[in-house]
Amino acid sequence: LDSRLPAVGTTIFTVMSALATETGAVNLGQGFPDFDCDPALVDAVTAAMKAGHNQYPPMPGVPALRQAMAAKMQALYGLRCDPATEITVTAGATQAILTAILAIVHPGDEVIVLEPCYDSYVPNIELAGGKVVRVPLVPGTFRPDFDAIAAAITPRTRALMINSPHNPSGQVWSAEDMRKLQALLAPTNVLLISDEVYEHMVFDDQEHQSAARFPGLAARAFIVSSFGKTYHVTGWKVGTVVAPAPLTAEFRKVHQFNVFTVNTPMQHALAAHMADPAPYRQLSGFYQRKRDLFREGLAQTRFRLLPGQGTYFQCVGIESLAVAERDLPEAEFCQWLTREIGVAAIPLSAFYGNGFDQKVVRFCFAKKDETLREALSRLARL
Ligand code: PMP
Ligand code: GLN
């Protein structure tokens, strides 16, 4: 078959989770919690189903959920947006990003991604017939290089994709970074896809700098959120896209022929749950404690800790481990770590088009403390 995506295999997250299951390893690979969501959220789904919310909701999503999202965007980021024309509920951030790209990218348009980047971005751009332009984040620090981004912009640049807090590095863009980006894009027509799925996991007293806070960015942005991350329900696959009305109109043209709409009872449950801001306001503190527990344990091992101020991921260098396997390519090292040490991780090379290998792997710490302690005791053997 003449493949549309010849370079694509099964995602690294699926591969590593399958290996973790097969070998009984502690799975710190694929990003998802090993603890359950608030039982009230499950009760709210059941209540929505019993109340008869079991048929198609409106194409852009249940109005109450869009209204709750609009209220949150205003309360947290000062953005006033119209739920009728500027917010769409999606089947997770994954569908949001693909749909945004299909809605705006013409064949031959250039789309800039900052590497390392989440694994769906590049195949999404390719499916739209776009040309992927890769700009590296600064090696070692994973900070944005604005000169390099500026140099990559051409008259064919249709969009730039950013992701803060950043998967896999955990780096968080500052307000100054966002202001620089705003100034850089001001004289252009470049659209922005701002992947903010980890918006509520920001540590060390920093604040999430949503594109929504910067009028020059919000006016050109698709702002992508995911309830899966925020409420410990990655399997529900519900997210949102906030974008100015003309962009949302184009987004919905694709959305209605892609999924048309997203499951009804979960949307009602999420809308009810959002009335209380405490869960998302407390999430950073919740994950910061887990990050600190995990980092303190890793500091007792030979892994080199990389800085991280957001997401539920911790990256580590493997170059000074006391085993010969440290010299393996990252992907093979992760296979070995899973099989022999009993802890699954994700190689950073999976986030690069050319498989760049810097001897760094990613662990997910969205786990019960006991799971983290078990993983740490295994990792201490290295
Ligand atoms: N973007 C990033 C950076 C992610 O880490 C993820 C989740 N792995 C997604 C998008 C997709 O989110 P969802 O599960 O809501 O589709
Ligand atoms: N976003 C998750 C991660 O980075 C994985 C989601 C998926 O498996 N597609 O681990």
Automatic annotation (TrEMBL):
Sequence ranges assigned to domain Aminotransferase class I/classII large in this UniProt record: 26-379
Gene3D superfamilies: Aspartate Aminotransferase, domain 1, Type I PLP-dependent aspartate aminotransferase-like (Major domain)
Superkingdom of source: Bacteria
Record key words, sorted: Aminotransferase, Pyridoxal phosphate, Transferase
UniProt-listed InterPro entries: Aminotransferase_I/II_large, Kynurenine-oxoglutarate_AT, PyrdxlP-dep_Trfase, PyrdxlP-dep_Trfase_major, PyrdxlP-dep_Trfase_small
Cofactors, names only: pyridoxal 5'-phosphate
Keyword Transferase: yes
GO MF entry, a single one: transaminase activity
Keyword Transferase: yes
A Pfam match: Aminotran_1_2
NCBIfam families to which the protein is assigned, alphabetical: PRK09082.1
Protein's name according to its UniProt entry: Aminotransferase
